[in-house]
UniProtKB/TrEMBL annotation:
This is Short-chain dehydrogenase. The keyword DNA-binding does not apply. Residues 4-184 form the Ketoreductase domain. PROSITE patterns: ADH_SHORT. Signal peptide: none annotated. Belongs to the short-chain dehydrogenases/reductases (SDR) family. It comes from the Bacteria. GO terms for molecular function: oxidoreductase activity, acting on the CH-OH group of donors, NAD or NADP as acceptor. It comes from Pseudomonas saudiphocaensis. The keyword Oxidoreductase applies. PANTHER family: ALCOHOL DEHYDROGENASE. InterPro entries: KR_dom, NAD(P)-bd_dom_sf, Sc_DH/Rdtase_CS, SDR_fam.
């Protein structure tokens, strides 16, 4: 049995849940966190016959909560080898000038503050694990490519990208690897959350194309975390083959 431990934020849905299943297939012990505890319980029930599973309700925005969850890890789950910083969300799909400031703060608090909270708290453990340890941060194509309605979301993912590179510089002699995984269009609950529960809006985005699946991204996360210890994938940008970049926006006079 593989005794390595993966710590996943946002394991209640989408990429995080698929990642839990992928690492379980390979025999890793799982620390699964997220705010919706019932979903964590369901996932634990599904996977505990295969591997050891520890679940903890966690809102990554609270540093006190993060510290408590890490401090209370049972002995067999303490030596984390891989941290998957996946918890995150987009809100306010409308243009910046129409967006609610609270939504901007929620994205900053979750995608930036939450991610640094968990990273800072687990860094000593990951450094102790050393060679072969990894931090896999979930960024987005929105971190590199601007589009209308991305405002703070894309900017928060640009933070994830640069933070990942900067971490690499500091951790280069520790054996701890850092990767920014930047997915494009992927069908999860992401668009449902972005549109505040509007299932029709979510269905409309994915229905007439072929988006990535949560399992596609979980496979990439597992891949980068299980490469030989001397290899670091710095950034992996993944789009569905039916997605590409749009052109520049140009404001024109009416003729
Ligand atoms: P989902 O909405 O399906 O999953 C998001 C996860 O984040 C949930 O498990 C949710 O758990 C968790 N989460 C949200 N806020 C918090 C919080 N404050 N504390 C702890 N957990 C939280 O979307 P995805 O799986 O698609 O999203 C996962 C990551 O991938 C995000 O960072 C997203 O930005 C990124 N991404 C998504 C893409 C897509 O097209 N789907 C493309 C590129 C990047 P809970 O609500 O239970 O707390
Ligand atoms: C989510 C992908 O294309 O909606 O990060 O910005 S996209």
């Amino acid at each position: 049995m593989n005794s390595k431990v993966v710590f996943i934020t946002g394991a209640t849905s989408g990429f995080g849940r698929a990642t839990a299943r992928r690492f379980a297939e390979a025999g890793w012990s799982l620390v699964l966190t997220g705010r919706r505890f019932e979903r964590l319980q369901e996932l634990k029930e599904e996977l505990q016959a295969k591997v050891p599973v520890h679940i903890a309700s966690l809102d990554v925005r609270s540093i006190d909560a993060v510290k408590e969850v890490v401090a209370q890890l049972p002995e067999d789950f303490r030596q984390v080898t891989c941290l998957v910083n996946n918890a995150g969300l987009a809100l306010a799909p409308e243009p910046a000038q129409k967006a609610d400031l609270n939504d901007w703060h929620t994205m900053i608090d979750t995608n930036i503050t939450g991610l640094v909270n968990v990273t800072h708290t687990l860094l000593p453990t990951l450094i102790e694990t050393g060679k072969g340890a990894s931090i896999v941060n979930i960024g987005s194509v929105a971190g590199s490519w601007p589009y209308s309605g991305s405002h703070v979301y894309g900017a928060s993912k640009a933070f994830v990208e640069q933070f990942s590179y900067n971490l690499r510089c500091d951790l280069v002699a520790t054996g701890v690897r850092v990767t920014d995984i930047a997915p494009g269009l992927a069908e999860t609950e992401f668009t449902l959350v972005r549109n505040k529960g509007d299932q029709a809006a979510s269905d409309a985005l994915y229905r007439t194309t072929t988006p990535l699946t949560a399992e596609d991204i979980a496979e990439q996360i597992f891949y980068v975390a299980t490469l030989p210890a001397h290899i670091n994938i710095n950034r992996l940008e993944i789009m569905p083959s039916r997605q590409a970049w749009a052109g520049f926006a140009v404001d024109r006079d009416k003729e």
